[in-house]
Amino acid sequence: MLVVTMMALVACGETTAPTPSGPYSVKFVVDGVVEKTATIESKADINGYFTPEKEGYNFEGWYLDKGFEKPLASEENPQTNLALYAKMSKKSFVVKFMANGQVVESVTVLYGEVATAPTPPEVPSMVFEKWDTDFSEVKSDLVVNAIYTEQVKFSATFLLNGKEIYKQSFNAGDKTEKLAKSALDALDIPDGFEFLSWATLLDKPIPDTFPERSVEYKAVLGISDVGGEISTTFSGDRVEYTPDGLTFTANHTAFDGIEYRYQWFIDGNPIGNQKEITIDTPDVGNHKIKAIITASSEWADSVSKSVSFDFAVDPATITTPSIVNNWFEYDGKPHDIEIDILPGDKLEYRLANGQWTSSLNLVNAGDYEIYIRLTRKNYHIYESSTPLVLSIAKKVVNGTIVTKTISYGDDLPTTYKVNYMGFVGTDDASVFSGDIIFTASVKDSLSIGNHTVSGDTTNHTADNYTLDLADGCLEITKRVLVVTADSKNIVVGDALPTLTISYTGFAPGENVDSLDKAPTIYCAYVQGGIAGKYAITVSDAESEHYHFVYKEGTLTVSKS
C-alpha cells in the first residue's frame, strides 16, 4: 500500500523534484542481516526490487535508518550507496472462545503470543473441564471451544452420636475445610462436652479433600471437665471417732449424657464404688480418702479425675457404761458387775484402794463398792469416779416345821424339827447359827386338835442364806387312859367281892371324876358257882379328852 501511495505521488508530478540519476548500489538488511545486494538503475525501482518474507510478520517498507524513522519513500535524493532496513511487524490473529455455540469472548493476539482465556461460563449440572485448542502460541486465527463434563455431586453428612446435624453436597477434590466449619457451626455441643475434631466412621482424621463418593463424618467430643471435690458429714479435717461410721460424697457437676463411676480408697485400700459412701470409721490417726471419678459417654472417650481428702480421727469419749446386772442371789459362784461392753473391750475392776484386776470373783453375799476401768480401741480410757455397787443377796432357803404330836395334858414342846430346802452345793442347816423360837397357837395341851406352830428366825442366821420358815402344826390328840379291872381271889362259896378298877394315864391333876362317864365293871361269877377263873371286864367309859384302853382282870375261885 505504501508503494501505491508513492506511485500516486509521482503521478501527480506537480511539485516533485527531478528524480536523481542512478545507478544505486543497495544493500537490503533484514533483522540485522544483509539479505540481498543489488545495483539498481533508478530510485523508483528500489522499493519493488526486493520484498522480504518472514513467517508471522508483515513487511511495512524500507527505511534509511535502523530505528525506522526515515522511510525510503520520504527521501527525495538518496545516496547512491544505500543500506536499506526492512521494517517487519507481527501479524495479529483473532482467537474466539466459544461455549455451547456462543462466543464468550474474542481476543486479538499477535503472532506467537499466548491468548488470555476468559472465565468459562457456568453450565447447570456441568463442570468445565478444559478448552479444546491450544492457545499458548497463536499463529493463526483460532476458535477455541469450552469442553464441559457432566457434574457428579456427592454428599457429606456430619453426625453427632449417629444423628445427622449437617449435610451438604460437594465435588470430588473439593476442600473439606469449608464444609467441616459449616458443620461445626451447626453443631449444638451438649453441656459438659467440648468439640475435638471431625473423624471418619473408622475413627480416622477426615482428609483435606473429598473423595469421589459420599461420606459420613462424626463429631469427636471430649468431656470438658469432670471436676469435683470430696465433701463430708463432719466439718473441718478432724473428726472424733464414731462407731456409726463416716460418710463421704464425691461432689461434682453432673451433665446429661455422661455416666459417672466412682472408685473409693481409704489409705490406698479400695472401699466402694458409689457416689456417696459410708465406711466404718478408721482407727485413730491420720488418713487419706480418695475418689477416682470416671466420666464416660457414648459421645466421648472416658475421662478420670482423682480427688482426695486428708483428715484425722481423734479418740472418742466413752459414755458412762450401762450396768447390765449388778444384783445376784448367792449361788456359790464368783460374780462381778456385768457391764455393757463391745467385743474387744478390756474391762477391769477394783475395790477401794485395791489393784485393778480383770475379775474380783466375789462369792459371798454382801454389798460391794467397785470401781471399773474400761479400755476400748479408739476411745479415751474410762474410769468410774464414783463406785458402783455390786449386791450379792442372801439366798432364801425354805424351811418347814415338822408336825409334832402330843397327847392331851402333855407339856407343850419348845423345839421342833425343821426340814430345809434350797441350799447351794454341799451346804446344809449347819450354816445357820442361833435358835429358832417356836410358838404354838395354844397355851396348853388341853385343846384336842391341830394347832399352828410358827417360828421366829430373828436369831437364826447364816452368812449367805435367809430362812423362809413356813408354819408347822402341833397336833394334840386324846390321851390314852388304860382302864384295868383289878384281879380278885375267893374260895368256892364266897360271895362276889367288890370289883375295883385301876387307871393309868390320867393327865396331871385329873382322876376318874374328870371323865364324862366312868367305866362299868362286870364279872359273870355268882355265889355258889364252881371253882375256876372268871373274867372281870371294864367298858363304857366316856371322855372327850381320853382314849380308853381296857384291860381285863381275873376272878380266881379256888376250892378251899
If you consult CATH, what is the topology of the largest domain?
Answer: Immunoglobulin-like
Please report the first level of CATH classification, the CATH class of the largest domain: Mainly Beta
* β-strand amount: over 45%
Number of helices: 3
Number of strands: 41
Work out the oligomeric state of the chains in this entry. Answer: single chain
Based on the model shown, name its key terms.
single chain; 560 residues; Immunoglobulin-like; 7 domains; five-stranded mixed beta sheet; 41 strands; disordered N terminus
Report on the architecture of this protein:
By secondary structure, the chain is mostly beta strands. It folds into seven domains: 2-90, Sandwich (Immunoglobulin-like); 92-150, Immunoglobulin-like (Sandwich); 154-223, Sandwich (Immunoglobulin-like), CATH 2.60.40; 229-314, Immunoglobulins (Immunoglobulin-like, Sandwich); 323-388, no CATH class; 395-477, Ribosomal Protein L9, domain 2 (Roll), CATH 3.10.430; 479-558, Immunoglobulin-like, CATH 2.60.40. It has three helices and 41 strands. Strands 14-20-19-16-17 form a five-stranded mixed beta sheet, with no helix packed on it. A hairpin with a 2-residue loop joins strand 9 (154-160) and strand 10. It is rod-shaped. Residues 1-19 have low confidence and may be disordered.
